[in-house]
Design brief:
CATH class of chain A: Alpha Beta
CATH class of the largest domain in chain B: Alpha Beta
Structural class of chain A: alpha+beta
Largest interface: A-B, 27 and 30 residues
CATH architecture of chain A: 2-Layer Sandwich
Strand content of chain A: 25-35%
Strand content of chain B: 15-25%
CATH topology of chain A: Beta-Lactamase
Distance between the termini of chain B: 34 Å
CATH superfamily of the largest domain in chain B: P-loop containing nucleotide triphosphate hydrolases
Number of domains of chain B: 2
CATH architecture of the largest domain in chain B: 3-Layer(aba) Sandwich
Oligomer: heterodimer
Largest sheet of chain B: 8 strands, mixed
Helix content of chain B: 25-40%
Order of helices and strands of chain A: HEEHEEEH
Shape of chain A: globular
Strand order of the largest sheet of chain A: 2-1-5-4-3
Number of helices of chain A: 3
Number of helices of chain B: 10
CATH topology of the largest domain in chain B: Rossmann fold
Chain lengths: 123, 381
Amino acid sequence: MANEKELMDVFGKIENDVTGVIATAVVDLESGMTLAAKSNRPEFDLAVASAYNSELVKQKMKIMRALNLKSTLEDMLLTLSDQFHLIRFLPGGTSFLYLAADRSGTNLAILRNSVGKHVAALS
Amino acid sequence: MAVLDPRTDAVVIRIVYDGAPMAGKSTSVRALGRGLGSHMFTPAEVCGRTLYFDWLDYTGGLFEGHRIRCQIISVPGQATLAPRRRRLLESADAIVFVGDSSPAGFDADRGYLGGLGRVLEQLPGPPVGIVLQANKRDHAQAVPLAKIRSMLDDMGMRIGVVESVATDGTGIREAFVFAVRLALDRVRELMRTAQLQTSRPEVDSAQELLERLKQAEDGSMDYATAAGLIHTRLSDVCPQSIVSRALEQTVRDNEAVLQPVNGDGYVPTPPDERVASGMVWPPVSGRTVLQELTQAGVQLRCSPQGDWSGAVNGRWRIHSAASEVYGALEEGRTVLIHSAQIHAANAREKSVDRCVVLAGDGRGRYRLWQITRLIDGAPVA
């Protein structure tokens, strides 16, 4: 598992690729606690967002079990009217990266590509 | 003790930072506070030494739909303040033991860990998990991790280890989140046994804790020494004997003669720290075993009967019988609970240092694993 500094470096690299990043965190799936967090908007409560998104991921995994799906969950993309939210598992599967970005500043392809590239480098 | 606070609908847990003097407890809590955006409160300090405690309050994460409020406290490490240390340790739901990796500090760690173990043994309720935050890993002569693990083995302590450098914040958040997970395992066990109280926390602020400690001080030095909380400097861990090495080699050789029988090269996924709460027994110490398995990695072999097994660092043996595979989660969980009940009932006779885990096998099924401790390389009965 990468340490907090390495994770913060990854956040920086993603911000270099993607304009309009609002906040990024790496979240422990079991507890919903952040292992690293960076917010560019003080009003965006990243601790709360991380906690509830961990619940979202757990629910999705429950659904997959209920459907007896054998595949693994790679990422989750959520499109709001003005924001993109992206969730991507880190290697090991005990934690995930959560990122919120301004929809007017980027697109899903760039976002997904950048996050995928930098998260893969953590393994 | 953890409670469910009806005012905020939050689960309130207490994480206590313990360790020898100058190990880096306050530095760790301060670094954690910086990362979490919370301010550390220290009631009294002399020349950088904590006299009462450091206090950090943080709400984050989610447990069973409840927010998690963490009361993060560090104890005073000095031997003369042991009564305060003991009272704070007794209130913990999980401990982060800040170990000093420098050769001089390592000796002190052993004495302090021993005292901590004796205090925790006497506590009622589910066990309190410990994370060893091996601090000062940037020290030029830092004690190797293998030696730290060897010390823990000698002491019979089952503890997760996280490396850190508190002065620059490395490893601090990781150790904290691991401790939170251990505390939540304890909370889950409290819920299961209907012991989780719904009430305001016994202590709700740093000021209240300070008053409580001051009230309880009279004659309390005796209270501390009764539990053996003294600053003890012991010699280094004895090197392993020739006999124990030979036994370890025997176990490794036994594992090596077993070959995979599956033609497709399939190997089941061994359990790791991703296993969810409720799928590992014992709930707290079992998770620390899984953390060690994850860090070390497991190489599994299959017997001609289709049983899978492996050894981890010569310290643990992991085994799953061919018959212990379940198509449905609930079916496996029922067997897990039954197995846990048997081992809990026979703990004195046969179940020392054992962990039972239900985990996905990589093919959409669930496999029950038994993990047992190897003493001198041989399985414990």
